[in-house]
Design a protein that fits this description.
About 50% of the residues lie in helices and about 15% in strands. By secondary structure, the protein is of the alpha/beta class.
């Protein structure tokens, strides 16, 4: 008999790590994946000891085309049944679009987009056979916002991921499988520093920043309840409402004031 697990990409820090803790306290066994093997090994032991669950890990770079299949093979060879797939891995590119190499852009698209599709594709058949599955796609409020002058592809890819999540629901809800697009706003993690946009993050007002733990908790609850969309916190739910009804020119003006640096780089 296979053990039931949740698989989390980008699980070594930030929202991914907090999602792991949130699922662990609910009794889920875990498979953690990220690029930092040493950190994954340490975290696996800490989470397992704290929550008395099974935790395994696989070091993987999702910019590599073969990585999703390798992750799937690792799970099947160990008889790990993935009932909850959390597509969280991501990063940002701070360089202006015309200065970024095509190779960097392709890696970016693969990690934030193609790998999400590939992992969903390889794990879906087993979910269909079991009549149950929960997929979380960590997207962003940027999916609803006007284009930014930094990280030109970030918002478009997140918009694509939201639509992909919708497509999963359209095709597989009747088979007991749901997909939840989680769209957080500014979250306090190491994402901005590692992506080279910490200065922009520092300029964001405090009332628009939320902890990764809070975002993860709302995301996990929404996913397990089978919701199609989760915009964590009332602040960002209201902002998304505005993004849907106000013209883009007005939104860019508002966001240039609440998130200075995001729209003023040339």
């Amino acid at each position: 008999m296979k053990d039931s697990y949740a698989l989390i990409t980008g699980a070594s820090s930030g929202i991914g790590l907090e999602i792991a803790n949130s699922l662990a306290k609910r009794g889920f066994n875990l498979i953690l994946t990220a690029r930092n093997e040493i950190k994954l090994k340490e975290l696996s032991k800490v989470i397992s000891d704290k929550h008395k669950i099974k935790v395994d890990f696989i070091c993987s770079d999702l910019s590599k085309v073969e990585s999703p299949q390798i992750i799937y093979n690792f799970c099947t060879s160990n008889n790990y049944q993935i009932d909850c797939l959390v597509n969280n891995a991501g990063y940002g590119i701070p360089t202006a679009f015309h200065e970024t190499s095509m190779e960097d852009e392709e890696d970016f698209i693969r990690v934030l987009g193609i790998a999400v599709i590939a992992l969903s594709k390889v794990f879906l058949p087993n979910m269909i056979s079991n009549g149950y599955g929960r997929i979380m796609i960590v997207s962003s409020v940027a999916a609803f916002a006007p284009p930014s002058t930094i990280q030109a592809l970030y918002g478009p890819i997140k918009t694509f991921m939201n639509r992909f999540s919708d497509a999963l629901n359209t095709n597989y809800n009747h088979k007991g499988i749901t997909s939840t697009a989680v769209c957080p706003g500014f979250t306090v993690t190491n994402f901005h520093q590692s992506s080279g946009v910490q200065n922009e993050m520092d300029k964001v007002p405090g009332f628009m920043k939320f902890s990764a733990k809070r975002i993860a908790e709302e995301a996990v609850i929404a996913t397990l309840n089978g919701k199609n969309l989760c915009v964590p916190t009332k602040t960002y739910r209201f902002l998304v409402f505005l993004l849907k009804i106000l013209p883009s020119s007005a939104l860019a003006l508002i966001e240039s004031n609440v998130a200075p640096g995001r729209y003023d780089k040339k």
